[in-house]
User: Fold these one by one.
Assistant:
Number 1:
Amino acid sequence: MAATENAKPTPGTAAEGMGVAKGGWFTELSTMWPGQGLSLKVDEVLFQDRSKFQDVCVVKSGAFGTVLLLDGVIQCTERDEFSYQEMITHLPLCALENEATAVLVVGGGDGGVLREVSRHRGVEQIHIAEIDAMVPEVAKKFFPEMALGFQDPRVRVEITDGIKWVEAAAEGTYDAIIVDSSDPVGPAEVLFQKPFFQAMHRALKPGGVICTQGESLWLHLPIIKELAAMCHEVFVGGSVSYAYTTIPTYPSGQIGFMICSKANAEGPPLDPRTPRRPAPEAAISGYPPLRYYSSELHSASFVLPAFARKELGSSLTL
């Protein structure tokens, strides 16, 4: 992608997107996808402020319901959030050889991943390290169906830098670490760098798994290629794989996940393409049913188009 190869991506604002078109439309602009932008008709601006870290905005859209924008980029919408939240969570948790008991979520302040992790009844500890205190508060007010996970008594919320939390964790603390980050711009940039992945590898139990937001095959293949090569260096003896989901309000309508497992002396590396437990049911009354993830889709999501397999194949172990 030319813009990211020649210039460092820079954060934007919701106001910039509102100013592109007249008549109450918002256009998602970013140096991460130059020359294009998804536009939504905005019925109402529900919230707009700047936190210590980023521009935070919530708008009401007739097409996609309530929409969360961070630095002018769509993070989730009421209509399609489940396709991302379910896949980034259940791909790793349903693939583990043994059911997870300790799970860490890095980022994910909107609560969607927490909701999905809390469906897994065997999990005893759910930690979330979110750097921006404004995001969970906004989610609880404007996205109550996503923020359900905050109500789970197993959840421990830490408003802190995710990389510092992971670095401070004892070796072998977590069965799974799920990184629900925004794009590698602003506060999320460090979550795509090698020191963070090395820290996650250390914090995992043997045979444990990480699943991180892995950008778009259509727009960010060079970034994904670098990420996969770096994971190949970090997760020696384990596995490195890539899966994806479809979601209409993310750039190009598709987003992927880098899924890596730590070596396990007791057996071969984890093959995350095979689900080892069924799709979880709601752990708490009032949860919505699963609307995207299934065991069949789990395996299918790892099948990459030929152009992507050609570019990533040397770094992927599966």
Number 2:
Amino acid sequence: MPVCVTEQSWVQQWPRVTKFILSACAATVAEMVTFPLDLTKTRLQIQGEAAIKQHGPGGGPQMAYRGMMGTALGIVREEGPLKLWQGATPAVYRHIVYSGVRMVTYEQFRDVLGRSEDDTFPLWKAAIGGMLAGAVGQFMASPTDLVKVQMQMEGRRRLEGKPPRVHGVYQAVLKIISEGGIRGLWAGWVPNVQRAALVNLGDLTTYDTVKHILLRNTSLQDNSLCHGLASTCSGLVAATMGTPADVIKTRIMNQPRDMNGRGVLYTSSIDCLIQSVKGEGFISLYKGFLPTWMRMAPWSMTFWLSFEQIRKTMGISSF
């Protein structure tokens, strides 16, 4: 009983810190479960851009991988099964910052604005809150995202006979700083933040809205079934809205940089968008959509189920 009292007083004394920690724990579980799909998605999005640069649209050698399963099997066969988790460490670091900040920001935004008289949170408020929370969280976590993307591509570089750029998280951070200074850690932050705002418009806004619609208009209780249905919807909407920005973000962050830390392939997210559409067509913006959705769906479900259950265990009200 003393432990429960101490735990309860700790939760009440530092509610935002508590919610940050719980969000980070739930996100870590979800990230480790679904990380191989994130690696597959990244490889699919990167392939083809080098050939476009060297040979022009329609030229160049055939791509090494075709489709999600081909990419995943190719990684296992050529690099080993453990390489499916290459870059998982910075990915976990990223979500400790990103998910913790975005969840606390959204709840704070929702508490400040308050619900309507009928105890609903209007969709337009939820949309603004979701985009704001995603943008703030991603800006804070952008350096870890840059390290994650670069580490994910190391196995592919070795197979192409290119020298490795990094051998670990610490070395990757030092390399980025040596090439572009502290500002280099935020390379690609604009498309990064744009993507996060769109993804959270789909994820946070959809989950919060769908969950409370189900609770108000159906006989469902505030339990795992309700959370699962809401998270399924949020994963699909987030993938649909976020994939184009995700492709642009990944390409900008993965491009080589000159001595001043500027990208040598793309000058901006708009330039990357134009080059991608011109060289590979509009459909290139949805490269990796299937693995993105197949990752976001289980990620979203794992995260929300874990998050809601942890909150319940800690005596915190449902999200």
Number 3:
Amino acid sequence: MENSDGNRLHQQLIFAGCQRQLLRAGGPAFTGISPTAPRNLPVRTFAAVKPQRKNQKEDKEKEVKKERRVIDDSDSRKPYGFTGWAPVDDVYVPRFYPRTTYGAAESVDMLKTFQRLDFTPLKQPIFVDLRLNMKLEKKKKVDAFVSTVHLPHPFKTEMNKVLVFTADANQAQFALESGAVFAGGVELIQPILDDEISADFYITVPDMLQKLVPLKNKLRKKFPKSKRGAVGITILKMLEMFKTGHEYMVENDCYVRTQIAMLDMTEEQILANLETVLLDVCSQRPADMGPFIERAIIASQTSEALWFRSEDLLQKPTEQQQEEEKAVLTI
């Protein structure tokens, strides 16, 4: 009896345990927490997408631009960032003093002095290096240009080779007699493309300009243009200009580097050539836009570079001179 009662009790315990497991697996888990009570579930946050600006121009205008601070040290004992205004001895460190800028006549005289002290050849070229302010109003700028100027004192020993395009046989013969190397019409196009003939300058009459389109890629900057004075009806005048003319161009967007004279020329001749080049350069931009030349350097082939004031040769005419010119024009 005792064994049967013990077995029965053991079976009841096992059945109760199995029933408890079934309730846990199949039915809802009953806990002390109410199912309607709010629970603090983890929430993942994301960065908000930055909206795109629709009116970027208006935002740029609202931004306050930092103005460049200009220090006026003209009345101070020494310039800002330097040891003094000028060295007191012949031996000094150049970076401790502001760069010396000379007058145009003084710089030419110094070049001649350097030649005598250094025992260098007297017959050597003089070069000028100009940095231009190519900016115009409304974010525009002056296009890089090529110009030919007639120097009052040419320094070249040989004349430039000039080719003339014209369909008129009489004009072609006249051009050859006036000093042109070649003269003719469309028959010269193919020899130029084949490199059989070439010249330093190419000029043409207006009627031939449309027929010379195949030469644009070949000649490039030498292609005749009216802005350079290479297109016109006065063949003799153009020939005289380009046979002895001096050509210069803008390099690297804002620099003009060209030869202006020889060191064995007189100081007056060098200054006259320099003034002619500077005036022609400044004529490429409106005068009311301010100074066109920001920096001017002159040097010979063997000397050091000298910064000079280009405005010395670009003085504006006085009121008296303007009145005299008006009087001459009225007469």
Number 4:
Amino acid sequence: MDSCVIPLRHGGLSLIQTTDFFYPLVEDPYMMGRIACANVLSDLYAMGITECDNMLMLLSVSQNMSEEEREKVTPLMIKGFRDAAEEGGTAVTGGQTVINPWIIIGGVATVVCQPNEFIMPDSAVVGDVLVLTKPLGTQVAVNAHQWLDNPERWNKIKMVVSREEVELAYQEAMFNMATLNRTAAGLMHTFNAHAATDITGFGILGHSQNLARQQRNEVSFVIHNLPIIAKMAAISKASGRFGLLQGTSAETSGGLLICLPREQAARFCSEIKSSKYGEGHQAWIVGIVEKGNRTARIIDKPRVIEVLPRGTTATTLVPDNFNASSEPTL
């Protein structure tokens, strides 16, 4: 599961805890701190938990950086992590810092819960609908942005995407990765979610398969739609890397994949976009739960939903040859 659930000796309470860390993947140290914190908290949110009692920060400072670089970069990463924790209603109370060849940032999130405060990810039923709350393609966007300065790699994708489109996708990916899944976690209770996971390093297919294996009922997940940051599907295909359309492309701090009752899914998608939760929250119906042997698959020709970066219109982006749609269908 995304988090460990440890029954406590006192009053039917459970200790729920998760940890994660990784290397920097964006250029902005402050945003990297925010993304790292959002990624740690996301494992709690995947269980419908909206409150976190405590966070620890894990930080590795690179010995290969100059003292001046360390003094500028490290406080920004720490501030980003702390600010995201504060946005999540919690605080960083400690942690560990080491010197290492690489920069690493991550943390530990801990909460004590009553049984009604979390949703075990094991109760999907036939007829449920799968909803995803962030678009896919973060790894593709980050890598494409790095390739702007690598002629050999850029030459493989420049026929399907412009430099401006790569910049827009990179900014969109960075914004999405730094966005907390807390709103979606709260709405899981409102709309009677049966199970959920967050989409990170194993891609949407890997995490769907893992979630399917946890189910108590004999069900399988079938994914029909793939919401993807605009142009990233074309880059994945042109580069011959990532496996984005096959669902194997890694994501960082991705959205929640939630099993919802069919009659609730559309209302969930509509509610999460409400302005009362702030800007940037999205959701798409991406698949169904059917009778099966606890597996997950993506259909042979999934519908690609091209998700436009904020502040752009359809005419801003050059059309590609993919079967693209702005509306999810089943």
